[in-house]
Amino acid sequence: MRNTWGRVTTGLGWALFALWAWAPLGAWMGAWITAPDLWRLAAPGGRRLESLAATLLYALTVSLLASAIGGVAALYCWRRHDALARTAEWTALLALPFPPYLHAMAWLPLLTALPERGAGWPSATWVQTAAMLPYAFGLTRLALEHLDPRWLDAARVYGGDQRMLRGVLLPALAPAALAGFALVFLLTLADPAAPSLFSRSAYSLEIFADFSASHDAARALWMSTPLIAAGLLALEPLRRYWCAIAQRPSPDSAQQSPIELPGLSAGAALMALPALALVAAILKQAWPPGAWKDALELGWRDAAASAGSALVAALAVLPAAFLISRFLTRRHSPAWWCVSAPLAAPGALAGAGLIWLWNRDLPWTPYGTFWMLPLAALARFAPLAILAAAAWRARLDPLLLDAARVYAPPRRRIAGVELPLLWPGLAVGAAAVFALSLAELPATLLVVPPGSGTLALRIYNYLHYGASGSVAALSVCLMGATAASAWCAAHLWRRLP
What we know:
The protein is mainly alpha-helical. 76% of the residues lie in helices and 0% in strands. The protein has 19 helices and no strands. It is globular, with a radius of gyration of 23 Å.
């Protein structure tokens, strides 16, 4: 009976995840295989080759800058409690889900006033780096908590901070730095918002434009092949980092002092500057009372649609996260790749895949309705919720779960033991999905129902005509909701028993 119950619930979890994340992409594989004559699109030429090369260079530059600045800032903030360290940590936490197009609002007036050679890709690189800094900072900061303090104590005794940094700390943090680089690279490849605001076309936008013109699934998937290949390569450093983080952190030592090296404070200042500039610029533009009145008249329907779709996606992902997370606790589990591989797909490909999947003559289809918005969010962010829940499960004492598995029937074990232990990890995943869904743009651009929209889509469209007071007021609402979700997720993550 127990085995039957376990197989049924496990199959339900995998079926839900396959419907959300793999169906929009996996269904396209048939079109990809049945149209081999389009294989040339996988190796673009001419203008598309230039766009692909520029996009890869742009993503690599952003990844290098963000991982370097974020890593230095994390070293400064580690075990330091001064004003600069607290400011850097809080801005990194609260600004983590802020999308690049919001950061563009703070810098558009300055960057668009530059000469032609100063605009374009350099401006997009700075804006995207500002948005990605919290990710690189967070991965390095979390890795520092898992270091064994005895290594650092021994290195400090025999060589001081400089030798400890070169011989122990930097080699130990290399996987975290590589994971931060890979994560920023993956997110930058999938998001064309910053380049488009500065009149540059990222390669993912080429996929969006081609599918909008042809509605050919095979063409879009063949065109996406270079980005998918690069994304899959970026997942391996993230897998190694996830395996290291999905463990109990090493006990910290209250007597340990922070690292005292010149230049670290500059990294912390650069970490806090973009988020503070963003908040100051948007609050200044949203200050006139008339801006809020116009914003409510223009965007309340879009805000309600965004909040509703994000809430539906966050709640819907919980059963799959709970049921699948148990398969990811093993270090070399192939289930990790099954869950995380959809993250390598560009956002435009996920949105176009949903259209191809649901735009059919069925008794009922979500195509053209509100339900396409949460489906787009689940297609993009459901893997993150499952990985968060699995990381939480791996950090728990396994004896508690083993005892419940032996002595309690399945239903009582789930309701009385597993759910109380796992709910903070599930809530972290749901909060991440909620925050990222509010700001999701690439897939939403394709699946949004006619005559409706989302808050992110309205802000992005208005930014092409300049940042006005009403747009700034809408941005304040979006920033507040995403920052609150990020704070809740971080608070829950620190509740490990």
